[in-house]
Amino acid sequence: MYLCKVIKHLAEEIFKIKNLQDFETKALEVFQFQAENNPVYREFIQHLGIKSAEIETVSAIPFLPISFFKSHQILSSNTEPAIIFSSSGTTGTVNSLHPVVDLDLYRRSFQQAFQLFYGDIAEYNLLALLPSYAEREGSSLIYMIDDLMSKSRPNSNYFLYNHQELAEKLRQLQNEKQKVILIGVTYALLDFIETQQFQFPELIVMETGGMKGKRKEMVREELHEILCQGFGVQKIHSEYGMTELLSQAYSKGNGIFECPPWMKVMIRDTNDPFQYLSANKTGGINVIDLANIYSCSFIATQDLGRLHEEGQFEVLGRFDHSDIRGCNLLVQ
Question: Which residue has the higher pLDDT, 295 or 133?
Answer without folding.
Answer: 295
